[in-house]
Amino acid sequence: MCPLIFLWRCRIIKELQINEEIREKEVRLIDVDGTQLGIVPIKKALEIANERRLDLVNVAPTANPPVCRILDYGKYKYELTKKEKEARKNQKIINVKEIRLTPNIEEHDLQVKANRAIEFLKDGDKVKVSVRFKGREMGHTEMGEEVLKDFLNLLDEYGKVEKEAKMEGRNLVVILVPKA
C-alpha cells in the first residue's frame, strides 16, 4: 500500500467518519441515550439520524460491523477538546536542570552550586549533576567521585538519587529528584 494512501486512511479514522463519509453497507447503531438499535443498513441509519437532526458518527471503524452512534458531532468534538485541555492543565511539567562540577572545585564554589541545586529541587525540577574530567583528570576519577559524594551530602535533605553515579564519556553523572 502506498504510504500516502495509508496516511490518508489513518487521518480519516483519527478524525472520525460522519454521515455520508461512512462507506460501510451495514453498521451497529447506538442511539443518543446509549441503547443499541441493532445492525442496520447505512441508509436506514442515516435516515434515523436525519429525523432527529443529529449526526451519524463512526466511533469504532475497526469493529465488525463498524459501530456508529447518533449524536451532535459539534458538541461531541467540543467536549473532547475540553477534556483534552483539562488533562493538559493538570499535567506537571518536570524540567531537568544541570549542575556541572570539576574534580578540583573549591569548597565555597561547591556550596554555591549546592544552593542553586537546592533551589531547583524546591521548584520540583530534577537535577542532573555532572563532574567533567579534562585531560589528565581522567586518570583520577576517584577525586570526582569524592566531590560528587560531598555534593550529594549537601543536598541530602532536599533530594534523593534517582540514577546512581555513572561514567558517560568524560563525565560522571548522577540524577536527583526532589523528596516528596
UniProtKB/TrEMBL annotation:
Origin species: Soehngenia longivitae
PROSITE patterns, per database record: IF3 (PS00938)
GO MF, one term, reads: ribosome binding
Q: Where would I find the Translation initiation factor 3 N-terminal domain in this sequence?
A: 18-87
Which SUPFAM superfamilies has this protein been placed in? Translation initiation factor IF3, C-terminal domain (SSF55200), Translation initiation factor IF3, N-terminal domain (SSF54364)
Q: Which gene encodes it?
A: infC
Quaternary structure, per UniProt, is: Monomer.
* Any one of the GO BP annotations: ribosome disassembly
Family affiliation: Belongs to the IF-3 family.
The UniProt keyword set, sorted, is: Cytoplasm, Initiation factor, Protein biosynthesis
Q: What function is annotated for this protein?
A: IF-3 binds to the 30S ribosomal subunit and shifts the equilibrium between 70S ribosomes and their 50S and 30S subunits in favor of the free subunits, thus enhancing the availability of 30S subunits on which protein synthesis initiation begins.
Specify the Translation initiation factor 3 C-terminal domain's residue ranges. Answer: 94-179
Q: Does the keyword Cytoplasm apply?
A: yes
Q: List the Pfam families.
A: IF3_C (PF00707), IF3_N (PF05198)
Q: Which domain of life is it from?
A: Bacteria
Protein's name in the database: Translation initiation factor IF-3
Checking InterPro entries in the record gives: T_IF-3_C_sf, T_IF-3_N_sf, Translation_initiation_fac3_CS, Translation_initiation_fac_3, Translation_initiation_fac_3_C, Translation_initiation_fac_3_N
